[in-house]
Design brief:
574 residues, alpha/beta, 8-stranded mixed beta sheet, 23 helices, 9% strand
C-alpha cells in the first residue's frame, strides 16, 4: 500500500502541475483579451460639446506628428532647434501604453487611452473619442491631412478633412512625398489646419534601434524635409506644433514606461506662441493647445489644458471656453467613476466633482485614487486573494506532509528563478515592459522564447533539487525499488512549487488591478510581469513531462546514491 501511495502521489503531482499550466494559459488569454477589448465608459457619457473660441490665434496652424522620435534625437534636428528658439521647448509625457494608435489618439483628442478607448494597436474601427478632425468639421474650418491610411480607419479623415493625401504604411521613405503634397495642397487650397504624420523615424527605430547610426541618419533626413515644410509655409502668421507619439529604446521598441519612450518632444512656435523656453507638459495638453491656435473647440473628451504659451495670446473668450471644457470633462470623469458604486460612494464622488476648488488634473487624480482603493477593498474576497490563499495553503500542506522533498523542491525553485531571471534581465537585457517586443508581429516568437527558457530553467531547478534531496537523509537511496516513485515525484514537485510561488504573485496582481479593466488601464509594468508569470506557469507544465526523467537520472548517478546500501528502510521514511 505504501508503494501504491507513492505512485498515486506521483500521478497527483503531475496532474496538479499540468492543471495549473492549463489554468495559467487560459487566464493569460483572458487577461490579454480583456485589455485589447477594453471599452471606455467615459466616451459614452453625454459630455457637452465645447464652445467655439470665437477666433483663431494664427491664420494657419500646422500640426506635425513625427512617429517614434526620441527627445534626445530631436535636439539634433536643426529645424526643431530653430523653432524652439522662438517658442516652446516642451518635454511631453506620453501615457501608457506608449503605442502608436493610443498615442496618436491622445495627441489629436487630448484623451489618455483609458478615456479615449484606444488602448492598443489592435483597436478595431473608429476611435470613440472626439478629435481635432471632428471639431474642425463642426466649426467649418478647412483642414488638410497628409499621412498613413490608419488615420482614416481611426479618425475618418477622408470624410472629415477637406483634403487628404494618404498612403499605406510601408517600408519606403515617405516623408519627402508627404512634404511635397502638403506644400502643393496648402498653396492651392489654403487650409487653416494642416495635420501631417511622418512615419520614417519610427521605421528606423524598429529596424535598427533608437541608438543606432541608421536611426540618426533617418532623423537627419526627416529634419531636412521638415525644414522644407517650415520654410514653405512660414509667412509670419502660421503656428507650428511638432510632437512625437513615442520614442524608442536603444535596441528598438516602444510601448513601455522607459524614459526614452515616454518622454517625447513637443515644439510650439510661430504666430500666437509666446517664447517661454523649456517646460514640462503632458501629451494630453497638445490637442487643446492646437485648438486655441487654430480657433477650434477643444475635443469634448480632452482632459488636457492648453499650454500657457498658447493661452497667453488667445482671447479671454477662447481661454474661458478651453478651461470650461477641461473642467466639465474632469467632472464627468469623476461622476462616471461613481455610477456603479453604492449610494455613499456615489455621493462622495459627485461632491468631489462639483467642488469649486480642484483643477481638472487634481480632480481626476483624486477620483481615480478613490475608485481604485474602493475596487481593491472589494477584491479582498475575489479571485486574486483566493488564488494567493489556495497557493499558500497548498505549499503549507506539501511542507507538512513531506518536508524533505519540499525543502529539495524549494532549492530547485530558487535555482529556477536564478536561471530564468539571469537569462531575462542579464543575458537579454529585458525589462518588464512592452518595449521588449520591438514590434507587434514579434510578440508570438518573443513569448515562445520566454516559454522555452522557463522550461529549461525548470529542468535546471529539478536537477538542483535532485542534488539536494539525498543531503537531507542519513542513508539516502537511489531511484530503485520502493524509492523509484519518490524520485520520480521530485521532478514534478519542483515545477509545482515554482508554479505555486508564481501563482501567489499573479494573485497579488489580480487583487491590485483586477481581471477585467472597466474604467482604467492597469500599471503596465506590473501587468507585463503578471503576464510573464502566467507564461512561466504554462511553460513549467511542459517541463513536467521531462522532469521525472531528470530527477531519475540525477538520483541514479548522485555520488551518495550510486553504491548499494543495506541500511534499514525505516531510517529513510519521510
Amino acid at each position: 500500500m505504501r508503494t501504491a501511495g507513492r505512485w498515486l502521489l506521483f500521478v497527483a503531482t503531475v496532474i496538479a502541475a499540468l492543471a495549473l499550466a492549463v489554468g495559467a494559459y487560459q487566464l493569460a488569454s483572458t487577461s490579454w483579451d480583456a485589455v485589447v477589448e477594453y471599452r471606455s465608459p467615459f466616451v459614452e457619457r453625454a459630455v457637452p460639446a465645447a464652445a467655439a473660441p470665437g477666433s483663431s490665434v494664427a491664420s494657419r496652424t500646422v500640426f506635425v506628428i513625427i512617429d517614434g522620435l526620441r527627445l534626445d534625437a530631436s535636439r539634433q534636428m536643426g529645424t526643431l532647434q530653430n523653432l524652439r528658439a522662438y517658442g516652446v521647448d516642451a518635454t511631453l509625457t506620453a501615457p501608457q501604453p506608449s503605442l502608436s494608435y493610443p498615442n496618436w489618439t491622445t495627441l489629436v483628442s487630448g484623451a489618455a487611452p483609458e478615456v479615449s478607448g484606444v488602448v492598443t494597436n489592435w483597436h478595431e474601427g473608429a476611435a470613440p473619442a472626439e478629435t481635432l478632425f471632428d471639431t474642425a468639421q463642426r466649426a467649418g474650418v478647412k483642414t488638410l491631412f497628409v499621412g498613413p491610411e490608419d488615420f482614416d480607419t481611426l479618425y475618418g479623415v477622408s470624410e472629415k478633412a477637406d483634403m487628404t493625401f494618404m498612403r499605406p504604411w510601408s517600408g519606403e521613405y515617405l516623408t519627402a512625398t508627404y512634404v511635397d503634397e502638403v506644400l502643393k495642397l496648402a498653396a492651392a487650397e489654403q487650409p487653416r489646419l494642416i495635420v501631417v504624420h511622418l512615419p520614417d523615424i519610427d521605421e528606423a527605430g524598429h529596424a535598427h534601434g533608437g541608438a543606432s547610426p541608421e536611426y540618426a541618419e533617418a532623423v537627419a533626413k526627416v529634419d531636412a524635409d521638415l525644414n522644407r515644410l517650415v520654410e514653405g509655409l512660414q509667412d509670419g502668421d502660421t503656428a507650428f506644433v511638432v510632437a512625437a507619439d513615442h520614442g524608442h529604446i536603444d535596441t528598438g521598441g516602444h510601448g513601455g514606461w522607459e524614459s526614452d519612450v515616454v518622454q517625447v518632444p513637443g515644439v510650439f512656435s510661430g504666430a500666437g506662441v509666446a517664447a517661454i523656453g523649456r517646460i514640462e507638459a503632458r501629451q494630453e495638453d497638445v490637442a487643446s493647445s492646437v485648438s486655441l491656435l487654430a480657433g477650434l473647440p477643444v475635443p469634448r473628451h480632452s482632459l488636457g489644458t492648453p499650454l500657457a504659451a498658447t493661452a497667453a495670446t488667445a482671447s479671454p473668450q477662447a481661454r474661458q471656453a478651453a478651461s470650461a471644457q477641461a473642467d466639465e470633462m474632469a467632472r464627468q470623469y469623476a461622476i462616471e467613476l461613481g455610477e456603479d458604486l453604492p449610494a455613499e460612494e456615489q455621493r462622495y464622488l459627485a461632491d468631489l466633482a462639483n467642488a469649486a476648488e480642484p483643477d481638472p488634473v487634481t480632480l481626476v487624480t483624486a477620483a481615480r485614487d478613490y475608485r481604485l482603493d474602493w475596487d481593491r477593498s472589494q477584491r479582498l474576497t475575489g479571485i486574486g486573494t483566493t488564488l494567493v490563499l489556495a497557493a499558500l495553503l497548498t505549499l503549507l500542506f506539501i511542507a507538512v506532509a513531506a518536508w524533505r522533498p519540499f525543502v529539495a523542491a524549494g532549492a530547485g525553485t530558487v535555482a529556477y528563478y536564478a536561471v530564468y531571471n539571469l537569462l531575462f534581465f542579464v543575458v537579454h537585457g529585458y525589462a518588464w515592459s512592452l518595449s521588449a517586443f520591438n514590434s507587434e508581429d514579434l510578440i508570438g516568437a518573443w513569448m515562445n522564447g520566454r516559454m522555452i527558457e522557463a522550461a529549461v530553467a525548470g529542468l535546471v531547478g529539478v536537477a538542483v533539487a535532485g542534488l539536494v534531496y539525498p543531503l537531507l537523509r542519513s542513508a539516502p537511496k537511489g531511484p530503485r525499488g520502493t524509492y523509484l516513485a519518490g524520485w520520480l515525484t521530485l521532478g514534478p514537485l519542483v515545477a509545482l512549487v515554482a508554479q505555486l510561488t508564481l501563482a501567489v504573485q499573479a494573485g497579488i496582481y489580480l487583487w491590485a488591478w483586477g481581471l477585467y479593466p472597466t474604467w482604467r488601464m492597469p500599471d503596465l509594468m506590473w501587468a507585463f510581469k503578471y503576464d510573464l508569470d502566467l507564461v512561466q506557469m504554462t511553460a513549467l507544465g511542459a517541463a513536467v513531462l521531462l522532469a521525472p526523467l531528470v530527477s531519475y537520472l540525477v538520483g541514479r548517478y548522485h555520488p551518495m546514491t550510486r553504491a548499494p546500501r543495506t541500511d534499514s528502510a525505516a531510517a529513510d521514511q519521510a
